[in-house]
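Open question from group meeting: does this chain pack into something compact, or does most of it stay loose? Before anyone orders reagents, we agreed to write out a predicted structure and look at it together. Recording both the input and the output here so the notebook holds the full record.
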Amino acid sequence: QVQLVESGGGLVQAGDSLRLSCAASGRTVSSYTMGWFRQAPGKEREFVAAISRSGSYTNYADSTKGRFTISRDSAKNTVYLQMNGLRPDDTAVYYCAATARGYHYTYSTERQYDYWGQGTQVTVSS
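Structure tokens returned:
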């Protein structure tokens, strides 16, 4: 079993960048397909990005493609979400998630993930 803790959120202006971190404990991140999701007020949680257990494949939501980058550092047992060109509609609580399913697959639905962090708030002002 893995425990996930997100950090790096904050209040930024439109166009700024942030890097979110998801620190794992209990198991190594390379044992899991890792994903980022977000939930804005009054909306359902939505997929942001994922990286396969192999580390060879990544997947992004259309709204984040070209602006966000997911990566992992096995030595630090941490997954990152680099967010550039932030917009007000990126405002949400961002969650890190993990699943032991798959090797070269990335998953984009909540029910495919088994472990979740507590979330970190990202607020983008216009």
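Observations to bring back to the group:
The two ends are 40 Å apart (CA to CA).
The CA atoms of residues 8 and 75 lie 19 Å apart.
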